[in-house]
Amino acid sequence: QVHLVESGGGLVQAGGSLRLSCAASGRTFSSYFVGWFRQVPGKEREFVTGISWSGTSTYYADSVKDRSTITRDNAKNTVYLQMTSVHHEDTDVYYCAATHRAPSAFDDNTWYSRGLEYDYWGQGIQVTVSS
Prior knowledge:
- By secondary structure, the protein is an all-beta fold.
- 0% of the residues lie in helices and 48% in strands.
- The chain has strands at residues 2-7, 10-13, 18-26, 33-39, 46-51, 58-60, 68-73, 78-83, 92-99, 120-121, 125-130.
- The strands form 2 sheets. Strands 2, 4, 5, 6, 9, 10 and 11 form a 7-stranded mixed sheet that branches.
- β4 (33-39) and β5 form a beta hairpin.
- 33% of the residues are buried.
């Protein structure tokens, strides 16, 4: 079992930056692929970014790839999402998620963008971008 807790959300001014953290406890977090998703009520959950267990492979949605960075510190059992030049459309509840399955277990190379492939989820944290 892995327990995930997001932090760092809140009110951010448009054009500014945000940094979210996903802290894990439980089983060996360093062997898990971690993703960030975001969702508001009435909308579909959207993949934001993901990072492999070693941190050597990262993936980004087109909407954030030029202004976001995902990193992880396995010694601290934490994954970070840094996003710059935020705008109103970034207002969402952000969730981190983890899966222990290796990329080789999937037949396609976009599996990380599907929420159903993840085993564990955090409770989510609100990010609101103000103009």
